[in-house]
Automatic annotation (TrEMBL):
Record keyword RNA-binding present: no
Sequence intervals crossing the membrane: 20-43, 49-73, 94-117, 137-154, 166-189, 195-216, 256-277, 283-302, 314-337, 357-378, 385-407, 413-436
Family designation: Belongs to the multi antimicrobial extrusion (MATE) (TC 2.A.66.1) family. MepA subfamily.
Keywords: Antibiotic resistance, Cell membrane, Membrane, Transmembrane, Transmembrane helix, Transport
GO cellular component: plasma membrane
Name the UniProt record assigns to this protein: Multidrug export protein MepA
The species this protein was found in: Listeria fleischmannii 1991
CDD domains per UniProt: MATE_MepA_like
Predominant location: membrane
Gene Ontology process terms (BP): response to antibiotic
Length: 443
Protein backbone atom coordinates (compact mmCIF):
# COMPACT_ATOMS: atom_id res chain seq x y z
CA UNK A 1 0.00 0.00 0.00
CA UNK A 2 1.27 3.48 -0.87
CA UNK A 3 2.28 5.78 1.96
CA UNK A 4 0.35 9.00 2.54
CA UNK A 5 3.17 11.03 0.92
CA UNK A 6 3.21 8.81 -2.18
CA UNK A 7 -0.57 9.06 -2.62
CA UNK A 8 -0.57 12.84 -2.23
CA UNK A 9 2.32 13.43 -4.62
CA UNK A 10 1.97 10.68 -7.24
CA UNK A 11 -1.75 9.97 -7.73
CA UNK A 12 -3.72 12.21 -10.07
CA UNK A 13 -5.09 15.40 -8.55
CA UNK A 14 -8.64 14.26 -9.30
CA UNK A 15 -8.10 10.93 -7.54
CA UNK A 16 -6.61 12.58 -4.46
CA UNK A 17 -9.37 15.20 -4.44
CA UNK A 18 -12.14 12.59 -4.60
CA UNK A 19 -10.41 10.46 -1.94
CA UNK A 20 -10.84 13.35 0.48
CA UNK A 21 -14.01 14.92 -0.92
CA UNK A 22 -16.33 11.91 -0.79
CA UNK A 23 -15.63 10.94 2.86
CA UNK A 24 -15.68 14.60 3.89
CA UNK A 25 -19.04 15.28 2.24
CA UNK A 26 -20.51 12.07 3.60
CA UNK A 27 -19.21 12.75 7.09
CA UNK A 28 -20.38 16.35 7.17
CA UNK A 29 -23.77 15.41 5.78
CA UNK A 30 -24.26 12.85 8.51
CA UNK A 31 -22.90 15.23 11.13
CA UNK A 32 -25.68 17.64 10.21
CA UNK A 33 -28.12 14.76 10.64
CA UNK A 34 -27.36 14.91 14.37
CA UNK A 35 -29.02 18.31 14.49
CA UNK A 36 -31.69 17.75 11.86
CA UNK A 37 -32.90 14.46 13.37
CA UNK A 38 -33.46 16.29 16.65
CA UNK A 39 -35.73 18.65 14.74
CA UNK A 40 -37.61 15.91 12.88
CA UNK A 41 -38.24 13.83 16.00
CA UNK A 42 -39.14 16.81 18.18
CA UNK A 43 -41.36 18.35 15.48
CA UNK A 44 -43.38 15.14 15.12
CA UNK A 45 -43.46 14.27 18.81
CA UNK A 46 -43.75 17.64 20.58
CA UNK A 47 -44.92 20.14 17.94
CA UNK A 48 -43.91 23.48 16.47
CA UNK A 49 -43.24 25.41 19.72
CA UNK A 50 -40.83 22.75 21.00
CA UNK A 51 -39.13 22.77 17.59
CA UNK A 52 -38.76 26.55 17.81
CA UNK A 53 -37.22 26.12 21.30
CA UNK A 54 -34.53 23.78 20.01
CA UNK A 55 -33.82 26.12 17.10
CA UNK A 56 -33.27 29.00 19.52
CA UNK A 57 -30.76 26.88 21.49
CA UNK A 58 -28.87 25.74 18.37
CA UNK A 59 -26.44 28.73 18.44
CA UNK A 60 -24.89 27.19 21.58
CA UNK A 61 -24.14 24.11 19.48
CA UNK A 62 -22.72 26.39 16.79
CA UNK A 63 -20.46 28.24 19.24
CA UNK A 64 -18.87 25.00 20.45
CA UNK A 65 -18.43 23.89 16.85
CA UNK A 66 -16.87 27.28 16.08
CA UNK A 67 -14.29 26.82 18.82
CA UNK A 68 -13.31 23.36 17.59
CA UNK A 69 -13.03 24.61 14.01
CA UNK A 70 -11.04 27.67 15.07
CA UNK A 71 -8.40 25.63 16.82
CA UNK A 72 -8.80 22.49 14.71
CA UNK A 73 -8.37 24.11 11.30
CA UNK A 74 -5.68 26.46 12.62
CA UNK A 75 -3.72 23.54 14.05
CA UNK A 76 -4.41 21.08 11.23
CA UNK A 77 -3.25 23.53 8.56
CA UNK A 78 0.11 23.76 10.33
CA UNK A 79 0.07 19.98 10.88
CA UNK A 80 -0.32 19.13 7.19
CA UNK A 81 2.24 21.78 6.23
CA UNK A 82 4.71 20.14 8.62
CA UNK A 83 3.98 16.70 7.11
CA UNK A 84 4.60 18.20 3.66
CA UNK A 85 7.98 19.34 4.97
CA UNK A 86 8.52 15.78 6.35
CA UNK A 87 8.77 17.14 9.93
CA UNK A 88 6.67 14.58 11.87
CA UNK A 89 7.83 15.64 15.35
CA UNK A 90 6.75 19.22 14.76
CA UNK A 91 3.37 17.97 13.47
CA UNK A 92 2.81 15.93 16.65
CA UNK A 93 3.59 18.93 18.86
CA UNK A 94 1.05 21.01 16.92
CA UNK A 95 -1.59 18.30 17.41
CA UNK A 96 -0.96 18.12 21.17
CA UNK A 97 -1.21 21.89 21.61
CA UNK A 98 -4.45 21.98 19.64
CA UNK A 99 -6.16 19.31 21.76
CA UNK A 100 -5.12 21.00 25.01
CA UNK A 101 -6.40 24.36 23.78
CA UNK A 102 -9.79 23.17 22.57
CA UNK A 103 -10.64 21.23 25.74
CA UNK A 104 -9.53 24.05 28.06
CA UNK A 105 -11.43 26.80 26.22
CA UNK A 106 -14.61 24.72 25.84
CA UNK A 107 -14.84 23.85 29.52
CA UNK A 108 -14.23 27.45 30.62
CA UNK A 109 -16.92 28.84 28.30
CA UNK A 110 -19.40 26.13 29.26
CA UNK A 111 -19.05 26.96 32.96
CA UNK A 112 -19.62 30.68 32.35
CA UNK A 113 -22.58 30.04 30.02
CA UNK A 114 -24.20 27.60 32.46
CA UNK A 115 -24.08 30.16 35.26
CA UNK A 116 -25.87 32.73 33.07
CA UNK A 117 -27.99 30.27 31.09
CA UNK A 118 -31.39 31.97 31.62
CA UNK A 119 -30.28 35.45 30.44
CA UNK A 120 -28.44 33.69 27.60
CA UNK A 121 -31.65 31.96 26.51
CA UNK A 122 -33.52 35.27 26.31
CA UNK A 123 -30.59 36.83 24.45
CA UNK A 124 -30.83 34.05 21.86
CA UNK A 125 -34.48 34.89 21.22
CA UNK A 126 -36.48 32.86 23.76
CA UNK A 127 -39.84 34.06 25.08
CA UNK A 128 -42.09 32.76 27.86
CA UNK A 129 -43.62 30.20 25.49
CA UNK A 130 -40.36 28.72 24.21
CA UNK A 131 -38.13 29.17 27.29
CA UNK A 132 -38.78 25.75 28.94
CA UNK A 133 -37.82 23.94 25.74
CA UNK A 134 -34.77 26.15 25.20
CA UNK A 135 -33.52 25.47 28.72
CA UNK A 136 -34.01 21.70 28.52
CA UNK A 137 -32.00 21.44 25.32
CA UNK A 138 -29.37 24.06 26.15
CA UNK A 139 -28.52 22.58 29.57
CA UNK A 140 -27.50 19.31 27.93
CA UNK A 141 -25.36 21.12 25.35
CA UNK A 142 -23.55 23.14 28.01
CA UNK A 143 -22.86 20.15 30.25
CA UNK A 144 -21.47 17.95 27.47
CA UNK A 145 -20.17 20.50 24.97
CA UNK A 146 -16.56 19.38 25.44
CA UNK A 147 -17.50 16.01 23.88
CA UNK A 148 -18.66 17.78 20.72
CA UNK A 149 -15.49 19.87 20.39
CA UNK A 150 -13.28 16.84 21.03
CA UNK A 151 -15.00 14.87 18.27
CA UNK A 152 -14.69 17.78 15.84
CA UNK A 153 -10.99 18.37 16.41
CA UNK A 154 -10.13 14.66 16.31
CA UNK A 155 -12.08 14.31 13.07
CA UNK A 156 -10.14 17.20 11.51
CA UNK A 157 -6.73 15.84 12.51
CA UNK A 158 -7.54 12.24 11.55
CA UNK A 159 -8.53 13.53 8.10
CA UNK A 160 -5.31 15.54 7.86
CA UNK A 161 -3.35 12.48 8.88
CA UNK A 162 -4.44 10.65 5.75
CA UNK A 163 -7.44 8.73 7.09
CA UNK A 164 -10.58 10.52 5.80
CA UNK A 165 -12.48 7.23 5.69
CA UNK A 166 -12.21 6.71 9.46
CA UNK A 167 -13.39 10.27 10.04
CA UNK A 168 -16.35 9.51 7.80
CA UNK A 169 -17.11 6.21 9.53
CA UNK A 170 -17.10 7.87 12.96
CA UNK A 171 -19.64 10.43 11.78
CA UNK A 172 -21.79 7.75 10.14
CA UNK A 173 -21.87 5.81 13.40
CA UNK A 174 -22.69 8.99 15.32
CA UNK A 175 -25.60 9.79 13.01
CA UNK A 176 -27.09 6.27 13.08
CA UNK A 177 -26.83 5.99 16.86
CA UNK A 178 -28.36 9.46 17.23
CA UNK A 179 -31.43 8.41 15.22
CA UNK A 180 -31.90 5.27 17.33
CA UNK A 181 -31.46 7.10 20.64
CA UNK A 182 -33.73 9.98 19.59
CA UNK A 183 -36.52 7.52 18.88
CA UNK A 184 -35.98 5.69 22.18
CA UNK A 185 -35.67 8.79 24.36
CA UNK A 186 -38.59 10.66 22.79
CA UNK A 187 -41.11 8.00 21.79
CA UNK A 188 -40.34 5.18 24.26
CA UNK A 189 -39.02 6.87 27.42
CA UNK A 190 -40.83 10.21 26.89
CA UNK A 191 -37.86 12.32 27.97
CA UNK A 192 -38.95 15.35 25.93
CA UNK A 193 -36.55 17.91 24.51
CA UNK A 194 -33.93 17.00 27.10
CA UNK A 195 -33.95 13.45 25.78
CA UNK A 196 -33.22 14.67 22.27
CA UNK A 197 -30.17 16.55 23.51
CA UNK A 198 -28.95 13.53 25.48
CA UNK A 199 -29.35 11.32 22.42
CA UNK A 200 -27.19 13.63 20.34
CA UNK A 201 -24.39 13.98 22.90
CA UNK A 202 -24.34 10.24 23.65
CA UNK A 203 -23.95 9.48 19.95
CA UNK A 204 -21.13 12.02 19.65
CA UNK A 205 -19.29 10.39 22.57
CA UNK A 206 -19.32 7.07 20.71
CA UNK A 207 -17.94 8.88 17.66
CA UNK A 208 -15.00 10.06 19.78
CA UNK A 209 -14.17 6.49 20.77
CA UNK A 210 -14.18 5.41 17.13
CA UNK A 211 -11.84 8.24 16.13
CA UNK A 212 -9.42 7.26 18.89
CA UNK A 213 -8.76 3.94 17.12
CA UNK A 214 -6.62 5.91 14.64
CA UNK A 215 -3.95 6.26 17.32
CA UNK A 216 -3.32 2.52 17.21
CA UNK A 217 -2.74 2.28 13.44
CA UNK A 218 0.81 1.77 12.18
CA UNK A 219 0.35 4.46 9.54
CA UNK A 220 -0.71 7.05 12.13
CA UNK A 221 1.45 10.10 12.76
CA UNK A 222 -0.98 11.33 15.42
CA UNK A 223 0.56 11.02 18.86
CA UNK A 224 0.55 13.17 21.95
CA UNK A 225 4.03 14.65 22.21
CA UNK A 226 5.73 16.87 24.75
CA UNK A 227 4.95 20.39 23.63
CA UNK A 228 5.13 23.88 25.05
CA UNK A 229 1.96 25.92 24.73
CA UNK A 230 3.49 29.35 24.13
CA UNK A 231 1.82 32.64 23.38
CA UNK A 232 3.39 32.62 19.91
CA UNK A 233 2.10 29.13 19.07
CA UNK A 234 -1.41 29.99 20.32
CA UNK A 235 -1.43 33.21 18.29
CA UNK A 236 -0.37 31.37 15.13
CA UNK A 237 -3.05 28.70 15.53
CA UNK A 238 -5.80 31.17 16.33
CA UNK A 239 -4.76 33.46 13.49
CA UNK A 240 -5.00 30.74 10.84
CA UNK A 241 -8.21 29.31 12.28
CA UNK A 242 -9.93 32.69 12.79
CA UNK A 243 -11.93 32.63 9.52
CA UNK A 244 -13.33 29.19 10.41
CA UNK A 245 -14.30 30.44 13.86
CA UNK A 246 -15.95 33.55 12.45
CA UNK A 247 -17.75 31.45 9.86
CA UNK A 248 -19.31 29.19 12.48
CA UNK A 249 -19.93 32.16 14.78
CA UNK A 250 -21.65 33.78 11.84
CA UNK A 251 -24.03 30.82 11.82
CA UNK A 252 -25.01 31.71 15.38
CA UNK A 253 -25.52 35.34 14.38
CA UNK A 254 -27.50 34.14 11.36
CA UNK A 255 -29.82 32.04 13.54
CA UNK A 256 -30.28 34.78 16.13
CA UNK A 257 -30.74 37.49 13.50
CA UNK A 258 -33.27 35.50 11.51
CA UNK A 259 -35.19 34.44 14.62
CA UNK A 260 -35.50 38.04 15.77
CA UNK A 261 -36.29 39.41 12.31
CA UNK A 262 -38.91 36.78 11.42
CA UNK A 263 -40.51 37.07 14.87
CA UNK A 264 -40.90 40.81 14.32
CA UNK A 265 -42.85 40.33 11.06
CA UNK A 266 -44.57 36.96 11.62
CA UNK A 267 -44.50 36.13 15.36
CA UNK A 268 -44.03 32.61 16.77
CA UNK A 269 -45.37 31.10 13.54
CA UNK A 270 -42.53 32.78 11.68
CA UNK A 271 -39.95 31.40 14.12
CA UNK A 272 -41.37 27.90 13.70
CA UNK A 273 -41.28 28.29 9.89
CA UNK A 274 -37.68 29.49 10.03
CA UNK A 275 -36.84 26.48 12.22
CA UNK A 276 -37.74 24.19 9.31
CA UNK A 277 -35.63 26.26 6.91
CA UNK A 278 -32.74 26.41 9.37
CA UNK A 279 -32.61 22.63 9.83
CA UNK A 280 -32.55 22.16 6.06
CA UNK A 281 -29.92 24.87 5.73
CA UNK A 282 -27.71 23.18 8.31
CA UNK A 283 -27.51 20.09 6.10
CA UNK A 284 -26.53 22.02 2.99
CA UNK A 285 -24.16 24.24 4.93
CA UNK A 286 -22.38 21.17 6.26
CA UNK A 287 -21.92 19.91 2.71
CA UNK A 288 -20.25 23.16 1.70
CA UNK A 289 -18.17 23.02 4.86
CA UNK A 290 -17.24 19.48 3.87
CA UNK A 291 -15.88 20.75 0.57
CA UNK A 292 -13.66 23.16 2.46
CA UNK A 293 -12.60 20.42 4.85
CA UNK A 294 -11.65 18.23 1.87
CA UNK A 295 -9.32 20.74 0.24
CA UNK A 296 -7.71 22.05 3.45
CA UNK A 297 -5.38 19.04 3.99
CA UNK A 298 -4.49 18.99 0.29
CA UNK A 299 -3.71 22.70 -0.08
CA UNK A 300 -1.72 22.69 3.19
CA UNK A 301 0.31 19.64 2.14
CA UNK A 302 1.02 20.95 -1.36
CA UNK A 303 2.08 24.29 0.10
CA UNK A 304 4.52 22.57 2.44
CA UNK A 305 5.82 20.37 -0.39
CA UNK A 306 6.00 23.38 -2.78
CA UNK A 307 3.78 21.74 -5.44
CA UNK A 308 2.05 24.80 -6.93
CA UNK A 309 0.50 23.10 -9.98
CA UNK A 310 -1.30 20.49 -7.85
CA UNK A 311 -2.50 23.22 -5.49
CA UNK A 312 -4.03 25.20 -8.38
CA UNK A 313 -5.64 22.13 -9.92
CA UNK A 314 -7.23 21.30 -6.57
CA UNK A 315 -8.86 24.70 -6.13
CA UNK A 316 -10.18 24.65 -9.71
CA UNK A 317 -11.86 21.30 -9.10
CA UNK A 318 -13.31 22.52 -5.81
CA UNK A 319 -14.87 25.62 -7.33
CA UNK A 320 -16.50 23.58 -10.09
CA UNK A 321 -17.97 21.09 -7.62
CA UNK A 322 -19.20 23.88 -5.31
CA UNK A 323 -21.02 25.74 -8.07
CA UNK A 324 -22.59 22.58 -9.48
CA UNK A 325 -23.80 21.52 -6.05
CA UNK A 326 -25.29 24.95 -5.37
CA UNK A 327 -27.18 24.84 -8.66
CA UNK A 328 -28.70 21.46 -7.76
CA UNK A 329 -29.91 22.77 -4.38
CA UNK A 330 -31.35 25.91 -5.97
CA UNK A 331 -33.42 23.85 -8.42
CA UNK A 332 -34.47 21.42 -5.66
CA UNK A 333 -35.71 24.33 -3.54
CA UNK A 334 -37.88 25.63 -6.36
CA UNK A 335 -39.37 22.25 -7.22
CA UNK A 336 -39.63 20.45 -3.88
CA UNK A 337 -40.16 23.16 -1.23
CA UNK A 338 -43.48 21.63 -0.14
CA UNK A 339 -41.93 18.18 0.29
CA UNK A 340 -39.03 19.57 2.30
CA UNK A 341 -41.37 21.33 4.73
CA UNK A 342 -43.63 18.29 5.14
CA UNK A 343 -40.60 16.24 6.19
CA UNK A 344 -40.60 18.05 9.54
CA UNK A 345 -44.25 17.51 10.41
CA UNK A 346 -47.82 18.55 9.65
CA UNK A 347 -47.90 22.21 10.57
CA UNK A 348 -50.65 24.79 10.60
CA UNK A 349 -51.16 26.42 7.22
CA UNK A 350 -49.57 29.71 8.35
CA UNK A 351 -46.34 27.98 9.41
CA UNK A 352 -46.34 25.71 6.36
CA UNK A 353 -46.81 28.54 3.85
CA UNK A 354 -44.12 30.69 5.44
CA UNK A 355 -41.66 27.77 5.46
CA UNK A 356 -42.33 27.01 1.77
CA UNK A 357 -41.76 30.67 0.90
CA UNK A 358 -38.53 30.61 2.91
CA UNK A 359 -37.16 27.56 1.12
CA UNK A 360 -37.90 28.93 -2.35
CA UNK A 361 -36.38 32.34 -1.69
CA UNK A 362 -33.48 31.35 0.57
CA UNK A 363 -32.19 28.50 -1.62
CA UNK A 364 -31.14 30.98 -4.32
CA UNK A 365 -28.22 31.84 -2.05
CA UNK A 366 -26.72 28.38 -2.58
CA UNK A 367 -25.71 29.41 -6.10
CA UNK A 368 -22.94 31.47 -4.47
CA UNK A 369 -22.50 30.06 -0.97
CA UNK A 370 -20.46 26.98 -1.94
CA UNK A 371 -18.04 29.08 -3.98
CA UNK A 372 -17.65 31.49 -1.06
CA UNK A 373 -16.93 28.66 1.40
CA UNK A 374 -14.36 26.98 -0.82
CA UNK A 375 -12.52 30.21 -1.55
CA UNK A 376 -12.55 31.20 2.12
CA UNK A 377 -10.87 27.91 2.99
CA UNK A 378 -8.36 28.32 0.17
CA UNK A 379 -7.33 31.82 1.24
CA UNK A 380 -7.18 30.73 4.87
CA UNK A 381 -4.97 27.74 4.08
CA UNK A 382 -2.64 29.74 1.84
CA UNK A 383 -2.04 32.32 4.58
CA UNK A 384 -4.20 35.07 3.05
CA UNK A 385 -5.96 35.46 6.36
CA UNK A 386 -7.15 38.99 5.62
CA UNK A 387 -9.14 37.95 2.55
CA UNK A 388 -10.50 34.84 4.25
CA UNK A 389 -11.63 36.95 7.19
CA UNK A 390 -13.26 39.51 4.90
CA UNK A 391 -15.31 36.77 3.22
CA UNK A 392 -16.56 35.46 6.54
CA UNK A 393 -17.27 38.79 8.20
CA UNK A 394 -18.97 40.27 5.13
CA UNK A 395 -21.26 37.25 4.57
CA UNK A 396 -22.95 36.90 7.94
CA UNK A 397 -21.67 39.60 10.25
CA UNK A 398 -22.05 42.77 8.15
CA UNK A 399 -24.09 42.47 4.97
CA UNK A 400 -26.63 40.03 6.38
CA UNK A 401 -27.27 42.22 9.42
CA UNK A 402 -27.68 45.30 7.24
CA UNK A 403 -30.18 43.57 4.96
CA UNK A 404 -32.11 42.12 7.91
CA UNK A 405 -32.53 45.65 9.23
CA UNK A 406 -33.46 47.24 5.89
CA UNK A 407 -35.46 44.65 3.90
CA UNK A 408 -38.13 43.21 6.30
CA UNK A 409 -39.88 46.56 6.84
CA UNK A 410 -40.14 46.85 3.03
CA UNK A 411 -40.79 43.24 1.98
CA UNK A 412 -42.03 41.48 5.13
CA UNK A 413 -41.07 37.80 5.48
CA UNK A 414 -39.61 37.76 1.95
CA UNK A 415 -37.20 40.48 3.03
CA UNK A 416 -35.99 38.26 5.86
CA UNK A 417 -35.46 35.21 3.65
CA UNK A 418 -33.70 37.09 0.85
CA UNK A 419 -31.09 38.78 3.08
CA UNK A 420 -28.59 35.90 2.86
CA UNK A 421 -28.87 35.32 -0.92
CA UNK A 422 -28.10 38.99 -1.60
CA UNK A 423 -25.18 38.91 0.85
CA UNK A 424 -23.72 35.76 -0.73
CA UNK A 425 -24.00 37.24 -4.24
CA UNK A 426 -22.15 40.44 -3.27
CA UNK A 427 -19.36 38.50 -1.53
CA UNK A 428 -18.99 36.06 -4.44
CA UNK A 429 -18.62 38.96 -6.86
CA UNK A 430 -15.92 40.50 -4.64
CA UNK A 431 -14.03 37.20 -4.46
CA UNK A 432 -14.14 36.72 -8.21
CA UNK A 433 -12.71 40.19 -8.83
CA UNK A 434 -9.94 39.63 -6.25
CA UNK A 435 -9.06 36.16 -7.57
CA UNK A 436 -8.92 37.46 -11.16
CA UNK A 437 -6.57 40.29 -10.21
CA UNK A 438 -4.32 37.97 -8.15
CA UNK A 439 -4.24 35.21 -10.83
CA UNK A 440 -5.43 32.69 -8.25
CA UNK A 441 -6.52 30.09 -10.81
CA UNK A 442 -3.31 30.25 -12.83
CA UNK A 443 -0.25 28.05 -12.24
Amino acid sequence: MKSMDARMEQDSVLKVFLRYLIPSLTGMLLMSVNIVMDGIFVGHRLGGVALAGINIAVPVFSIFTAISLWIGIGGATQYSFALGEKNVKKAQQIFTRSVILVITITIMLAIIAFIFRVPLAYLLGANDETLPYVMDYMNVLLLFGFVLTLENILSIFVRNDGDPNLAMFALIATAVINVILNYLFLFVFNLGVRGSGLATMSAIAIGVLILCTHFFKKSSHLKLAKSRVTGKSIKRTLSIGLPSFLSELGMSVFTMGYNIAIAAVAGTAGVAAFSVLNYTHSVILMLFLGMGSAIQPLISYYRGAKMKSRETATIRLSVSVAFGTGLVFFIAGLLFADNIVNLFGNFESEIHDLAVLGVRVFFSGYLFMGFNFVMMTYFQTTDRIGMATFITVARELILMVIFLLVLPPLLGATGVFIAIPISEFIVATSIFIYAYKKHVFQN
